[in-house]
Amino acid sequence: MKLYLVQHAKAASKEQDPQRPLIQEGRGELQKVTEFIKPLKLSVDYLWHSEKKRAVQTAELLAEAVEIKKAKTLREGLGPNDDVAVLKDELNTA
Question: Fewest C-beta in 10 Å: which of 10, 33, 42, 71?
Answer without folding.
Answer: 71
